[in-house]
Known about the structure:
Blueprint: H1 5-11, H2 16-35, H3 55-68, H4 78-83, E1 88-89, H5 98-101, H6 105-111, H7 122-125, H8 129-142, E2 146-150, H9 153-164, E3 170-174, H10 179-188, E4 191-195, H11 200-208, E5 215-220, H12 232-242, E6 244-249, H13 264-268, E7 274-278, E8 288-292, H14 294-303, H15 305-308, H16 315-330, H17 332-351, E9 364-368, H18 377-390, E10 393-394, E11 396-398, E12 409-413, H19 420-435
Parallel strand pairs: 1-10, 3-4, 3-5, 5-6, 6-7
Antiparallel strand pairs: 2-8, 7-8, 9-12, 11-12
Helix pairs in contact: 8-16, 9-10, 11-12, 17-19
Amino acid sequence: MLRNAPVQNRRRGKNPRFTGFVENRLAIASRALSAAGFPGRSGWFPVIEPADVSLDAHFETELARLAEQGLLREAPTRTAVAATSDLLDASSNDYLGYAAEGVSRETLLALAGEKSGSGASRLIHGSSAAHLDLEQDIAEWLGLEAAMLFSSGYAANVGLLPALAGSGDRIVSDALNHASIIDGCRLSRAKTVVVPHLDLDAVRSALEAPGAHRKWVVTETYFSMDGDSPDLVRLRGICDEQGAGLLVDEAHALGVFGPEGAGQCAAAGVQPDALVGTLGKSVGVQGAFVAGSTALRRWLWGTARSLVFSTGTSPLLSALTRHQIRRLRADEAARRRLQTLSETVLRRLRSVDVQVPKAAHGPIVPVLVGSDGPIDQNTRALQLAERLRADGIRAQAIRSPTVPPGTARLRITLHAQFTEADVARLCDAIIDACRAQ
Length: 437
Ligand SMILES: Cc1ncc(COP(=O)(O)O)c(C=O)c1O
């Protein structure tokens, strides 16, 4: 998840598009000068030389560099995966515990006969009844007119944003929006103005500036690495006043907040112009959707490239997802429990010297890592995760580029099926690990 890259670049005074353009022109000029016999690298213009090491040697060098900075990620082996199975899960987005449960025999039997695959993209081979039924269920759940399935939340955002915004438009995007939103903004070719996290005055100023054909605001409603939320009522008001469309990503809010788990917009009584939801987090399956008006759905059908040029999702999974959504809507007990557990954990951690951001609420609990002392922050985050692991808890160290450099953290997620003893053990382990640093 590449968060905040535009902000970093802006801070350093670099606009990535402009820098790329200049570098390209320099390379062309360099080649021409070099061909004409002018001095190269040691002279007064850079020469782009062909790579002189093998691809694998290049990978090894770069991976070693990442390891030095505490930024290396390694895919787990089969043995490593097996070793995590007994740990208490405080890292997945399976907030209601549905994904981990395993599908019951009864549910599997009810799904028998569903097609395993859709065979081609939705446009080419048509849609199955399971897709259409699921889309209708989602729309009804969220109180919106229509929904369109995508293969993932990433695909939904990189499909939606370029389908709506284009050159001449302006997108105002929160600095901590998910990488899929950032990439969608980039693909759209609209001018993207990145505003400080949750700063609605900055949103208004960015919208007020003249010179845009259409204006859009895009935000997550429950930020996945920070556990905080924008004031959606105020944001909707600003969009209306400025004639901007409001696009929200409810990936981490669905199932957790709002009536029947319908998310933060439903909780606030706000109607967005497009709502992205994922089906692989609280719903516990896989895939995603964009919900909104019937006209939006009709528009996306032919213009969202990640939908048009990608195989339709599995009808079997759509049927399973319908089952999970029905269950999730009725599961107020799990939502209430999650809320109570979250309050308990936040209260306990905040009562001691553990750094949890003030605005964090709900089941995502970021534990910030200090930057003083000889050990770099990324390594400290990894060490915290390692200490928790030794206590039987699986929590994720989150480093750049998932979060901005200098804000490495341990990301704890809570789950409705945690017992009181689990929560006490988790808090003790976090407190001990932080004190030991
Ligand atoms: C806010 C947000 N949007 C989109 C996604 C991508 O969803 P998916 O995992 O279904 O691709 C994520 C994933 O973590 C996310 O946090």
